[in-house]
Amino acid sequence: MSAQISSAPPGAVDKTGEREPLLSIRGLRVGFRRAGNQFEAVRGIDLNVAKGEVVGIVGESGSGKSVGMLAALGLTSKNAVVTGSVRFNGDELVGKPAREMRKIRGARIAMIFQDPLSSLNPVMTVGAQIAEAVRLHQRVTRKQAMARAVELLHLVAIPQPERRVNQYPHEFSGGMRQRAVIAMAVANDPDLLIADEPTTALDVTVQAQILSVLRSLQERLGLGLVLITHDLGVVAGHADRVAVVYSGRVVEQASVSELFADPRHPYTRGLIASIPNLEESRERLFSIDGSPPALGRLPGGCAFHPRCIHAEARCGIEDPPLHDIGGRFSACHFATTLPPFHSATLAAASLDKGSVAP
Amino acid sequence: MPFLVLGIVTIAFLITTVTKGDPLTAIVAEQQMSNPEVVAAAKARWGLDRPLPERYMIYLGNLLSGDLGTSFITKRNVGTDILYRLPATLELVFAAMIFGTTLGIVLGVLAAYFRNSLIDHGARLFALFGSSLPVFWSGLGLLFIFSVMLNWLPGPGRVDARLALPPGITGFLTIDSLLAGNLTVFKDALWHLLLPAFVLGWTVSGTISRLVRANMLDVMSREFVLTARAKGASEFRVVIVHALRNTMVPTLTVIGYSFAYLITGAVLTETIFSWPGMGSYAVEAARALDFPAIIGVTIVGGLAFLVTNLITDILYVVANPRVRLS
């Protein structure tokens, strides 16, 4: 494995002369077999993450955004079928033997999860769990690993780390637990950190703290950061680039400023329009009509077309691929011809139609 | 705790008074039963002519000085009898628990990890047989196969009667023989122990394996298991270090309960394998209406429950850090 890494070090220049991104996902699909039925939870994720870049992945619950990233790390359950390509530092991860994946997970790519209450082992001290992460990838003594754990707790701004390191998760508050989880994730100076809804289970004030811890670590350690969230506000404030996921595939990918100023997919437009705005007084909040399709019961053509206000006959037949529309991407037949976007207008128009459920 | 002990003693004592049998039949020979003088003398000698409350108080007083009374049958002190019998049972039960917990935990973990596979179904069948086959059936069957047909294992008994036994220090034949450096006796005692311990352990392993399986399935779906995998931990480490440790609290309860239960519940196994332990002593005492022995066995059994519960509670604290605070 070391030979493969040395043949393609971070920032290596490949044949085409372009800088290879840290993480490059192409056509990732994840299918599950259950009781004879097969359905696809992820139907095509394409994503690049450069070194030191923050990429947001936005989508509703069940859209496949988490499953996709779990699959990239080989963490999906045994009945999952993963196809496509996930290249990390030029090294293909899909189909890599479990032993080699273990050397990458936690060392080069770390992942943290939504619920800090349950993502720490209740019967092990926080320090022991961080030290475990260190010792799984570095040859250090138990004592050195514990010293490193104290250092890491200090890094994520946990007060009195020398005392805290010997405590159990139940003695930590929710926000502190998430900090400890982050400390554990960066224990081996990874290149990439995938954070799956890192703030969803926390109080609003704590959310901001956790995000600032993540951001400062990302800047200090030069991490690539993938921020999976359903909160557009988090993405707007922290990401460089955004991928919007709808029913298992990326429907739009753009820089944050481009995406919010001029979304080129009707679903993204709907999402942005449904953000409550303090400056406007609206009687009702905007919501996208209908609900996301159930897995295994996708409509034909574009999966979004039954809910789309711009849909035409073609949309029910042909599933649009992710087009390159000038350095950004959209999976809409009308990506370049959609009318100019004003979230207020869209909301008003939709309210006039009476399409919002009371 | 002291109240519980008093309760056990009282109930054990009272139970004997509500039985229909007359303890005199155990003391006085049948031909002498029509001789009022002999009967009266026996009553006076064993204190059976006194009223119940007085007998109870005498018994309690003796008990406080460690005297469990004299057996009607062996005419020895019940305490001495039990001390002679208890180590045999404890040795059997310890060995059975080693079999039972090891088998139970290993099968439970495998069944959960390979859920709905052949291993899972096999473990389920093994557990089902273990907890539903009566030991007199499985014990006799295994004795027949391994001792009579294959001649791999010795027949009933604790040790070959022709062997000279080492001095009893712990009362555990395997340990005493090792302490005395007598490997012949050690080997023989171990071979004798194997089958009854397995039969007894099998009954326990069924319950433990089902419990471990159910708890493992629950724990394996929690997020910290995913976190451990995301750290790069091996599957073995994830299952044993992270998941299994979290199932230990309910498992300990069942292990503790089974242990206490086996101390007095090994009756059938001890009878089949001619094991000179508490179970066979209890059966003999009950058959002969040997009241002091019955009360003694009941008290020791009750104490065994109390002590194992106490040990289980202490182990809880080790297994579950959340208990330590409260």
TrEMBL record, chain A:
Q: Which InterPro entries does the entry link to? A: AAA+_ATPase, ABC_Ni/Peptide_Import, ABC_transporter-like_ATP-bd, ABC_transporter-like_CS, Oligopep_ABC_C, P-loop_NTPase
Q: Where are the transmembrane segments?
A: none
How does it sit in the bilayer?
Peripheral membrane protein
Mind listing the GO biological process terms from this record?
A: peptide transport; transmembrane transport
What the entry lists under SMART domains is as follows: AAA (SM00382)
Its GO CC terms? plasma membrane
Q: Which PROSITE patterns match?
A: ABC_TRANSPORTER_1, ABC_TRANSPORTER_2
Identify the domain of life: Bacteria
Which molecular function terms from Gene Ontology are attached?
ATP binding; ATP hydrolysis activity
Give the UniProt keywords, A-Z.
Answer: ATP-binding, Cell membrane, Membrane, Nucleotide-binding, Transport
Family to which the UniProt record says this protein belongs: Belongs to the ABC transporter superfamily.
Its name, as the record gives it, is Peptide/nickel transport system ATP-binding protein
Origin organism of this chain?
A: Rhizobium loti (Mesorhizobium loti)
User: What are the leading ranks of the lineage?
Assistant: Bacteria, Pseudomonadati, Pseudomonadota, Alphaproteobacteria, Hyphomicrobiales
UniProtKB/TrEMBL annotation, chain B:
Where does the protein principally reside?
A: membrane
Protein name in the entry:
Peptide/nickel transport system permease protein
Keyword annotations of the record: Cell membrane, Membrane, Transmembrane, Transmembrane helix, Transport
The family annotation for this protein states:
Belongs to the binding-protein-dependent transport system permease family.
The membrane-topology field of this record reads: Multi-pass membrane protein
Q: Which CDD domains match?
A: TM_PBP2 (cd06261)
Which GO terms fall under molecular function for this chain's record?
A: dipeptide transmembrane transporter activity
GO terms for cellular component: plasma membrane
Q: Which organism is it from?
A: Rhizobium loti (Mesorhizobium loti)
Q: Check the record and name the SUPFAM superfamilies matching this protein.
A: MetI-like
Which PROSITE patterns would you find in this protein's record? Answer: ABC_TM1
Q: Which residues form the ABC transmembrane type-1 domain?
A: 86-316
Where found? Cell membrane
Tell me the classification of the organism that encodes this protein.
Answer: Bacteria, Pseudomonadati, Pseudomonadota, Alphaproteobacteria, Hyphomicrobiales
Q: Which segments cross the bilayer? A: 92-114, 126-153, 189-212, 254-273, 293-319
